[in-house]
Specification:
InterPro entries: ACC_epsilon
Number of strands: 0
Structural class: mainly alpha
Protein name: Acyl-CoA carboxylase subunit epsilon
Distance between the termini: 50 Å
Organism: Corynebacterium phocae
Mean pLDDT: 77
GO molecular function: acetyl-CoA carboxylase activity; propionyl-CoA carboxylase activity
Largest sheet: none
Shape: flat
Helix content: 25-40%
Order of helices and strands: H
Strand content: under 5%
Length: 64
């Protein structure tokens, strides 16, 4: 048995709402895969040093 693509963790969506979300996400994924196949460039910045990640970003937040 394969794992589900989506997991609802809050709320009670209808079957139609989950199906619509799955359709939209699969269409976006398909378009991006086709675009990457045509250009030969895969956009994947995960773990790159230039990524917008600042581990101290929330340390200096002031709450009013």
């Amino acid at each position: 048995m394969t794992a589900p693509h989506l997991k609802v963790i809050n709320g009670k969506p209808t079957f139609q709402e989950v199906a619509a979300l799955a359709t939209v996400l699969s269409q976006i994924d398909s378009e991006e895969r086709n675009k990457a196949a045509q250009t030969g460039v895969v956009r994947d910045n995960w773990g790159q040093p230039g990524a917008d990640f600042n581990p101290s970003a929330f340390r200096n937040v002031r709450y009013f």
